[in-house]
Amino acid sequence: MTFSKDLLAGQRILITGGGTGIGKSIARHFLQLGAEIVICGRREQVLADTAAELMGETGGRVLFKTCDVRDAAQVEALLDWIWAEAPLTGLINNAAGNFIAQSEGLSPRAVDAVLGIVLHGSAYMTLGCGKRWLAAGARGNVLSIITTYAWTGSAYVVPSAMAKAGVLAMTRSLAVEWGGRGIRLNAIAPGPFPTAGAWERLVPKPEMAAAFEAKNPMRRAGRHEELTNLAAFLMSDAVGYINGEVVTIDGGEWLQGAGQFNFVGEHMSDADWQALRTRK
Question: What are the chain's domains?
Fold first, then answer.
C-alpha cells in the first residue's frame, strides 16, 4: 500500500459509474484506505455484483443504487436516499460516455447522450452535493475525471471534448466560489487507462489500441493503481490546500502532442540525426 490504511477513514464517498472500469478501481482502493463507498449507475445487477465483490475483497461497506445521472430528478432522489442515512463527505464524478465518430455524421441524440452523462450529470451531482454541504455548514470534496483534450480539443470525439471542457470550467469556477466555505474541487486528466467495454468503442482495432497505448513518451498505458493512488491523494485531508487544480496523469502524452515539431522523432533514425550533425 502506498498510503496508510486509514488515509480515508471516516469518509463517505459517492462514485458515479462506480460499477465498472476506473470507477470500480477507485472504489476498491478507497475501501482499502478506510472509506465507506456508495456507487451508482444504470445497471442494478452490475452494481450489486460489484458491491458484493468489493465488500468480499476488502471487508469494507459498499452501498449501491441505480441512477441515470442525465436525469436531475433521479440525482436528487439518490442524494436524498444517501443523506437519509448519513451525509457524504466526497463525490467522484466518474460516469462518462464516449465513442469515436466523424463529427459531420453525429445526430443530435448522439451529442445529447454524451453531454447528458458527462456535463449535465456531473453538474447535477456536484450542485446537489454542494447545496447540501453548504446548508449544513459542512466540508465537502469533489473530484472529477476529465481528460487532457478538455483544454486542447480533439477530433472525432467532439461531444466528449465539449462536455469535459464544461466539467473543467465547473471545477475551476466552483473552486473559487465555494473554496472559502469549506468545499474544494479538483480534477484528474488521465491519458490511456484501458478498461473493458469503453476501450473497444474508442479503439476498435487491436493495432489502434497498441498505437494509442504507446503514443506517449513512456510508451505504455497507465495502470489503474497509478490513477487510484492519485485520486486517493487528492481526496485526502493531507492535501487540503489543493483547490481548483487539474492533475494530468498521461505519461506526458499531451505535452508530446503539443509541440509543433514533436512528431520529428518518429521519422528520424540515428543515421539521420548523425547526418544533420555533420552537415556543413
Answer: 12-278 (3.40.50.720)
Distance CA 11, CA 15 (A): 12
Q: What angle do CA 70, 72, 75 make, to 5 degrees?
A: 90
Q: CB-hemisphere CA count at 13 Å for 253?
A: 23
Cell of 230: 492519485
Kindly report, residue by residue over 142-169, the tens digit of the pLDDT: 999 999 999 999 888 999 999 999 999 9
For residue range 116-143, what is the model confidence (pLDDT) as tens digits? 999 999 999 999 999 999 999 999 999 9
Banded model confidence at residue 259, pLDDT cuts 50, 70, 90:
low
CA quadruple 224, 254, 142, 235: dihedral, nearest 10: 50
Let me know the angle formed at the C-alpha of 234 by 58 and 166, rounded to the nearest 5 degrees. Answer: 115
Per-residue pLDDT band for 267 (boundaries 50, 70, 90) equals: confident
- Would you call 214 helix, strand, or coil by DSSP? coil
Measure the CA–CA gap between 213 and 211, rounded to whole angstroms.
6
**Which pLDDT belongs to residue 52?**
98
SS3 (DSSP) at 104: helix
Please provide the DSSP assignment of 192-222 as one string: ----TTHHHHH--SHHHHHHHHT-STT-SPP
149 annotated active-site: yes
Number of separate helices (H) and strands (E) present in the chain: 12, 7
Query: How far apart (Å, rounded) are the C-alpha atoms in residues 26 and 140?
Result: 18
Phi and psi based region of residue 97 (left: phi greater than 0; alpha: psi -120 to 50; beta: remaining):
beta
